[in-house]
């Protein structure tokens, strides 16, 4: 690093003295920090001229922007100031290398996000499934990588990066640059998109939250011009391929490459994307997508997969609004007085269908039932993911057990509204929870769930999700059903 000082005799000395006196603690710390980083080999090609206090101020602001640092203590002008700077994790954009003329980035890895990592390979790439390695062609010296000078990258392409236990079970893939020609057994003309169907796959909520919604976001981000990629999938099990065959075809017309059992090398031109982008739980942020795609666009894609227009439910218009009740047997989040709830719904005026899905439930048949219904009712659980099959303006009533208000809104409330549904949330009272029989209504578990969960986050799952059933107050619930009935009638009249 070169810092040029202009010499003007005594005037120059006076200027220098004024500058040193005028330095803030932050400026000194930044300069010391730069010297420290230079001594450890972290070099910046900087040639700044400091000829006045204002010039120094500008330089200070420049490095403040680069390092995003904070000074904890003021008025300390010694080497210990370095200990008072908290260096935040750099964002991806801050440390992007600047390609020089005739240079391009062949491996561009973004590891700055909490939920996922993503690598874009901008050169001919050869996949060897036997060692889970992608060889990126580097037959030119006019290329760079991100992070800079890193030629080997490791990535687990599943968007739950913050969960160490989960990510440890996701196959790690290797990306390397090579100037050696790799034998290519299968040559493809389309780009590739690589991800894992491991983790919590098998739970319907996670199949969409960690799988298909991020897949939609990634394709609409990486291929905004409508090009369909070849899907390359690890933990690609046969039951998954069969269950989601119709939906997978909406993302790609090409046969899926199974990383787990393929032994042939595959070559892809130009661009390969490794990883899935997640915007959050059941969320699509249109402002982050090139064409401003929304959750409603994802819902339309789901409809394209399953809407055959041949269901007997659709052959004639119903005389009454249809209500589908998601049912569950087991030890948690069960409606204990379900029979009474069904009778009540019929009394209000609904035609009622009971839907109790399991791992063998056909999504095509589920779509036919739910898409032809006007109202869906269910206690918070993974089965409410089927609300993706409801038409816009349909009504979703989510029955929310004690202690999981935030989960209910995060997992299904927001997505329902994003799909254009009429969303109603029925939060049960303490006396409707089975926990009152176990703990008593005055126990902290029921009086202050937030305090209980703050003390131990595992209580969210152990107590409020896995050990709680619901006995619905029929008088109070009638009001929800009556309101839903009125909305459903309006919806029917508009069809």
Automatic annotation (TrEMBL):
Bilayer topology: Single-pass type II membrane protein
Example of a GO cellular component annotation carried by this entry: Golgi membrane
UniProt KW keywords: Glycoprotein, Glycosyltransferase, Transferase
Pfam families (alphabetical): Glyco_transf_61
Molecular function terms, GO-annotated: pentosyltransferase activity
Coiled-coil portions: none
Compartments where located: Golgi apparatus membrane
Residue ranges annotated for the Glycosyltransferase 61 catalytic domain, each copy included: 311-396
Name of the protein this chain belongs to: Glycosyltransferase 61 catalytic domain-containing protein
